[in-house]
Amino acid sequence: MPRPSPRRIARTIAAAVALTIAGSTLAGCASASSADTVQFHLSKPEAIPYFRELIQQYNASQSDVNVVLDTSSNLQAGFLRGNPPDLGLLNYNMEMARFMERGALSDLSDMPESERILPEVQDLVDQYATYPGRTSVLPYSVMAASVIYNQEIFDEQGLEVPETWDELIAVCDQLTAAGITPFYGTFRDPWTVAQGWFDYTVGGEVDVAGFYDEMNELGTEVGPQSPVSFEKTFAQPVDRMQQLITDYANPDAASRTYGDGNLAFAEGEAAMYMQGPWALGEIAKTSPDLALGTFPLPMTDDADDLEVRVNIDLAAWIPEASDNQEGARAFLSYLFEQDVMDEYNAAQLGYGTTVDAAPVTDPRILGMKDYYDEAAFYQGASKAIPLTIPTENYTQSIALGDDPAGVLRTLDADWARLALRQ
Amino acid sequence: MSTQPALAVENVDAAATLTDGKPRRGPARRTRSSGGGGQRPSTRLTLLLVLCSITVLIPLYVTVSMAFKTQAQAVDGNAFSLPAPFSVDGFVTAWNLTDYPRAFILSVLITAGTVAGTVILGAFASFAITRNWNRRLFRWSFFYLLAAMFIPFPVVALPQIQLTGFAGLDNPVGVTILHIMFQLSFSILLFTAFLRSIPAELEESARIDGATTWQTFWQLIFPLLAPMSATVGIFAFLASWNDFMMPSLITSDPSLQTLPVVQSIFQTQFSNNYNVSFASYLMAMAPAIIVFLFTQRWVMEGVTQGAVKG
Question: What is the DSSP track for A154-183?
Fold first, then answer.
């Protein structure tokens, strides 16, 4: 075939390289020039449209700060490089707590917003880690999760929401007798086992925060002889979890994924579903008008001993390394204006974190309101274990029929080994 | 390399035959010789190739049909159903959420820079190394460069992030440089193998005519390297266009991110937006597919070149 002359090739390539470098450098200059920019990190996709609009309004309303939405930067890399986003609003969990524990997040306790946070919600932050003398993470939205149930099926069968373990078993038996699957399990996704089945059964019976306080204190001493351990303390709830799975979950649960579960539950294939409010939006994609409710999983014989699982869906923080803390604080105050918060929580089915938050009204999550208001809640037991230990997979193996005692013993050994390493 | 047989499998054989005149494998295994057009194609081979193409076509079909579905239909569990009603909402959402044009241009610039840089630097280095093979410095630098093949990026990610931060390269320029660097060792391996097959006498004749080293390279060697440059370029293109981790970690300004990174927001644990994500993936795949459609001939040639020489 005919070839173009070598000089032309060389020239074309040289031009391409020059263009690339010039283009990228120019782009780099353009974004670095304005000093009062606040880089606002938010990685929850459902929330992006709402906050994008909010940022536009805010930027138009004043001229001191220019907020830029950041949905894709890598936090670990940002902190390492020393240029993290100026303001973060994201899920708060053990991974985020590491940054706080090491003092990478600035103190916000002098901001009036920190006074408005419900103390029991602020406690949830401290359950992961604290930094002496600082309040560096402000919860923005809390997700309360419990058993989701299909109200139509419950009404047809004349069932009441169960409040004790025995009532729960009775409800399940009646559903089974009527040919309805009581619980829909999606065990192919390990996180669904840990989040729902494991956390609800454990949290319904054990004082999760207290248990982990003791476990952290014991550290390397956790084992068969220690006063508390996974094997000892979690034995009954995890046995009951396996009982519910063997007797009352759909037989094909092992091969079902989270997406399959949402579809099946939306089509009324089961009466109850152990998922959080995030699943409600997914279910609504298929059946927008399905009447759903929520109730805390009863694990004891005491009807007053009911709690719901919560997690901090969004929490705000400002890094020490931010070069525009002033601007970030100004925007944080705007985000924490009560009507801004209320609108977000109403749209995302979250619970407010402040003393003056508007009460939830969505019927699907109304069933958890009383428990939330009375602070009858716990953070998931699976979330308090460092990610180094594959907790989700362990719980999945129990769901698939492994011996609970053996798996919990492994968990104890892992815990002690990790404590030794740290 | 003047003939262009229709199938890649045959092309391997063809290339093997052409390079040194005798077939590498036993003649019994070869069904057709290159250029022979009149024989009947083997049924078994055709079936095998049909199967192979199905493994590509089915996912492609699902991607395309998913992209045009509505959200309700996308989660209904039937991946193979045709979109009904036909919807372009997925494309609109994906376009807006990722700020597609900007991310696309950045991806193109980084990829173009990587391909050009890899081909030129790789050819330079290989030329220098093969022509000075008897000198220890060059021989060892070859092994040194090859050793880089054993270092995956995640292992050196942390120091790279810090270094690029110090050097002010936490932007697409830094990503391009790192892409070139990580692509270089494999490219040099390919180039040197190919350069060894070019007789030194060819170069000597150019020198007798008065050519400098620079002229010899640009006017004689580099054009001869063209098929291998195509191979190297294709590998560099794929590696750079599809890379997620490097731009995600190195680029600090989120408005300078590449396509694969901005698309990652569609994949979360808690929600499935199949129609939006597939629409977005389709838009990211489109350039590569379109380029392939037009350059198929050189791509095939280039890949088989690598197969024999590498």
Answer: HHHTTPPPP-SHHHHHHHHHHHHHTT-EEE
**N residues, chain A:** 422
Domain coverage including residue A101: 35-143+311-378
- Residue A282: which of B222, B255, B271 has the nearest Cβ? B271
Query: Which value does ipTM take for this structure?
Result: 0.74
Q: Which residue of A has its CA nearest to B276?
A: A45
User: Per-residue b/e over B13-48, b at no fewer than 16 CB within 10 Å?
Assistant: bbbbbeeeeeeeeeeeeeebeeeeeeeeeeeeeeee
Per DSSP, helices labelled H in A307-368 are 325-335, 338-348, 363-366
Could you tell me the pTM of the whole model?
0.79
> Going by C-beta distance under 8 Å and a sequence separation of 6 or more, which residues neighbour residue A322?
A84, A85, A86, A87, A106, A328
Residues A344-373, mean pLDDT to the nearest whole number: 90
Choice between A401 and A22, residue whose per-residue pLDDT is larger: A401
Which residues in A lie closer than 8 A to residue B252 (C-beta atoms)?
A: 73, 77-78, 81, 83
DSSP conformation letters of A74-129:
-HHHHHHHT---SEEEE--SHHHHHHHHTT-B---TTSHHHHHB-HHHHHHHHHH-
B95-309 in CATH: which number?
1.10.3720.10
Are A343 and A395 part of one and the same domain? no
- State the CATH number of the domain containing residue A78: 3.40.190.10
Long-range pairs, A9-12, Cβ under 8 A, ≥24? A9/B222, A9/B223, A10/B218, A10/B222
Helix-helix angle B172-196:B274-309, to 10 degrees: 30
Q: Give residue B309's pLDDT.
A: 46
B74 φ, ψ (degrees, to nearest 5): -65, -25
Q: Quick check: B32 and B10 in contact, CB under 8 A?
A: yes
Query: At A290, is the secondary structure helix, strand, or coil?
Result: coil
* Distance of alpha carbon B80 from the chain centroid: 30
Task: Give contacts of B268 with chain A, Cβ < 8 Å.
Answer: 45
| Residue B257, token pair as written in the block | 């991110």
Instruction: Give the C-alpha distances (Å, rounded to integers) separating A341 from B185, B276, B306.
Output: 53, 27, 58
Mapped onto helix, strand or coil, the DSSP state of residue A274 is strand
